[in-house]
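Run: sequence + S-adenosylmethionine -> complex structure.
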Amino acid sequence: MKKKRIIETVHQDARMSITQVSSLSDDIRRLLKRYNVRPKKKRGQSFLSSHSMAKDIVDLAELSGQEEVLEIGGGFGVLTQRIAEKARHVHVIEIDPSLVKALRDVAKDFNNVSIIEGDALTVDLPRVSTIISNLPYSISSEITFRILKEMEFEVAILMYQKEFASRLVANPGTSEYSRLTINVQYYAEVEEILGVPADMFYPVPAVDSTVVRMVPRSKGPFARDESVFHWMIGGIYPYPNKNLRKALRIWFRNLRIDKNLSDEVLKRLEGVLKGDERLRSINLNELVSLADVLLELIEIRTITDPRV
Ligand code: SAM
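>> structure
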């Protein structure tokens, strides 16, 4: 309930201050011209055009001044400047050389901004406690898994396309609950914290956005073998509306494993899952138990080890 209310009350002040919004849009237009940038959709180049929204996004990270922060996709530095004012250091990654130039000019006013020129999917990532980003939506999935798997951070404040964010936070039993939900929630607790209308950007994109907070799960539930968990999710979740027994049978048949093995799996899961549950309704704890049963079968060589 609380979550929903926060989302609905978003940004009355940003909506109110039309003059401020339009003046930053004008600034962005000028900057595009000055740095000779033609916004590219495939790079997700819609820039925040509200100072108050930038302030609110950075405030959500509750910076104390001690943090090393990573920003992915700095653009013209609207968030970067705000982070630099509030954190010990900000490392900002930007792929577009013209925007890197703009960021270098922004960084001149600070002594705590490092610019990493390159692709956030491949550059070496710095060690940070906090990640703040208005993400380029074209790499939403890949960059999310990169930071979840490769970084040890405390909190991430990330802006996504609204529909994508709904899938990240989905609960079992809903239509948004999917492979993406499970693979992300395996690593982190995720909540929606701010809705951001499309007119907060220049150029105005076709979609609204949502800011989420991600906090890595320290206590699990974790599968005994993470790779078996993800292998299993990839194997059964293409059929999210099927029941578990059916999805296992299809997956085993595809793997050329005796499809009747699904009965053995379900027997070992007694008390946890019966087999008639729709995949969309199975929660993380139950999926972890399922992955552990598969690992048992791999260990006794009833199922060929997918990891070798
Ligand atoms: N932070 C700025 C803001 O809020 O106005 C810009 C955000 S804009 C949605 C996304 C930024 O990510 C763009 O500056 C774009 O050039 C950059 N970008 C796109 N793909 C990237 C990648 N693979 N690696 C690093 N930066 C990328």
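>> summary
The chain has two domains: 2-216, 226-299. Residues 2-216 form a domain with the Rossmann fold fold (CATH 3.40.50.150).
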